[in-house]
Specification:
By secondary structure, the chain is mainly β. Strands 2, 4, 5, 6, 9, 10 and 11 form a 7-stranded mixed beta sheet that branches. A 4-stranded antiparallel beta sheet has the order 1-3-8-7, with no helix packed on it. The longest helix is centred in the last third of the chain and has 5 residues.
Length: 123
């Protein structure tokens, strides 16, 4: 069992920045990939970014060049640095983790999820 707790969501103006955090606990030795997803009202949940292996990462086209995913293994914490935020980035952001790298990369739903943190970008 892996527990994930997100934090850092807030209301921010367009062009601003936020850093989301996700603290992992429990059977973290099982985790081989972690990702950030988001879901806006009326829209499907989408993968924003993922990190796996030594230093491999994936970004959705909509956030490339603006968002950076990183992790601190000593703190068991995943981060998402979000810069140049746009109103269309408004969503609930979820942290997720899975033992299988291909689960997330193949667009299947990972095993473990956090409760989400709200990001609202005003124009």
């Amino acid at each position: 069992q892996v527990q994930l707790v997100e934090s850092g969501g807030d209301l921010v103006q367009a062009g601003g920045s936020l850093r989301l955090s996700c603290a992992a606990s429990g059977s973290i030795f099982m985790i081989n990939i972690m990702g950030w997803y988001r879901q806006a009202p009326g829209k499907e949940r989408e993968l924003v970014a993922a990190i796996y292996g030594v230093s491999s990462s994936y970004y959705a086209d909509s956030v490339k060049g603006r968002f950076t995913i990183s992790r601190d293994n000593a703190k068991n914490t995943l981060y998402l640095q979000m810069n140049s935020l746009k109103p269309e980035d408004t969503a609930m952001y979820y942290c997720a983790a899975d033992p299988q790298i291909q689960t997330i990369l193949d667009a299947r739903l990972p095993d473990s999820w956090g409760q989400g943190t709200q990001v609202t970008v005003s124009s």
